[in-house]
Amino acid sequence: MQKSILIVDDNTAIRSVVRCCFESQDGLQICGEAVNGRDAIEKAQQLKPDLIVLDFSMPLMNGIQAASMLSRLMPSVPLILFTMHAGAVLESDARSAGITIIVSKDQGPEVLVSQAQTLLGVSSVS
Fold first, then answer.
1. Considering its fold, how many domains does the chain have in total?
2. Which domain holds residue 24?
3. What's the whole-model pTM score?
4. Which residues partner with 76 through β-bridges?
């Protein structure tokens, strides 16, 4: 059974790389992309993803603000923060907003995919 993922990042190149990494794995599909937090909330309600990957720093509404709203609207959907701004203060704010896992962009999309597979109960293919 395919698990659907919504990617939220204002950087087109990042969204493209993340999309490619997820789509190379069996059992995972990208159901949509959003460019900011407001867009994420609208698309999440329309697309009903199994997982949402959020950037922190975006225009209009950042990833923490979006996560706070998404966790209230869709409490069973896990949220991953994929960010360059990982740190103790951000981690505390992220957890309070409903973020399940934080992955630094420095760790790369492979770590992001692995964490998503764990959250969704999808086994990785070598």
1. 1
2. 3-120
3. 0.93
4. none
